[in-house]
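Here is my example:
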Amino acid sequence: MVQMRMSSEAKHGAQPETLSRWKRWLSLRAYGLVSSTLFGATTPPMTMRGRFERFGRVSRQTMRRKFPKLVFGDHAVDGLAIESVCAVESPVRVILYLHGGAFFMGSPASYRNRAMRLSYRCQAEVFVPDYRLAPEHQYPAALHDAFAAWSFVKALRPHAAIFVAGDSAGGGLSLSLLVRLRDSGLVMPNGSFQLSPWTDLTVSGSSVDGNYGRDLWFTRKHLEVWARYYVDQADARSPYVSPVFADLSGLPPLLLLVGEDELLLDDTLRVRDAATSVGTDVRVLIGKGMQHDWPLTLPWLDESKHAWNTIRRFVEEH
């Protein structure tokens, strides 16, 4: 196990340190204000889903006008739509990316820009499945779709180095997928990385209360209410729902990124400890002073650039 802690006192090149600190402070506060206003704990899920799409969705035509060489692909398996995005002419690896959104928000269209940047940074072809969302489709619908997407991508690119990744709910879902692949005796990906993974839908981590007030978006009520949309009558302690409780032996190398100030900090640290205890290679990057999903939501920060360089080195190594 290797743990890395990112310093907020990173070198800022020619940019004055004071300006960098102000940019970080303003960016984090704006993030907290927007996210807490638009995505409240008891805001109706369909309302939040619509807002997520309006703010995140971008058309292929718009992206191609700016990046003419961008290549999209449409795939389907058993009714599951999967969009592929490739921003490089000769990708050297494949990433199956499970989007975030608390299991009830998000889509390939709202993650299109993020998938493009992931493709560029990691020299990869990125596949984003449009897995079914709660509360219409509760557990195990998302896991079934993730498994189908993995099987499809593995068959489509049988000789490629393949990574499974995700953020937030998609991060936890990707870990549950790895556990299911292991339990099924199937070939594992080369590695897996998760950003701010939600791995405990019982909401039992000590940081849920310990980081209250430091997390600029989430509260315990957010996590408890949103978990019910997906879990419903299932056992929230099932390793396929909350992989923090899983046996993590036999998994591929893991890279976990988490913000120091977010409620989900312990969702990562407990996975780290569980993986380490059974000999699974796991690395953790803690973003000092950072919030949930900071490399995705605040990509201009020095801390985010460092995080993406860490991800790039991880996939290159494996």
